[in-house]
Specification:
- By secondary structure, the protein is an all-alpha fold.
- The protein is about 65% helix and about 0% strand.
- The protein has 11 helices and no strands.
Amino acid sequence: MESTPAHNPKDLLPQPRKQPVQARSRAMVDAVAEACLRILEKEGEDALTVNRIAEVSGATSGSIYQYFPNKESMIAAVYERLLNQESEQLYRMREQLHGLPLQAVLCQVFSNMIRVELRLHSLSSGFHARYRTALHLGQWHAPQSSPQEFINTTWLPLLEIHASEVQTEHRALAAYLMGKGLREIIHSAVQDVPEQAQSAEFLDALVAMAMSCTKGRQP
């Protein structure tokens, strides 16, 4: 049976009208994306108009429309920029997790997931909700053919590394519950009750749920 070809999460986001080729046009597009980020962070999404973007970026309205067909494509450029930055930070964080016990690793991983989701949500809650499948930090630079493959290449190896701390015989199920189920909980909490998602109690509950997945069945 043929495998499903891997997809790039970026392809699921609204696309620009065209990609800049020359250094000058790339600089202009970068300036527009940076301006959009500043406006979203400081003034909110309602202030994100072409006139305001032109004012902050220094680009002309005509130049902006030449590369961005609509507001959604501009917001997408901001999210791509942020996820590129967060991906680099994620790689650095993973290097620091070697040798830590599983519970400490999970605390760091979930804390980072919550922080990133809150950051993405704060810029545009609507965009964050509409494109949640594409805005997956773990898969941003490592596209998989399916969500299950992502689980099998990330969360399952984590449990295998910490095999001495894992009691359940059903590691694949435990990996799925951690990587898929708890991510859904984080996303929903950030959308529904962001103030609670920021609490230490929420993080503690996530780690406790994850650790419970590693336990064997009680007699």
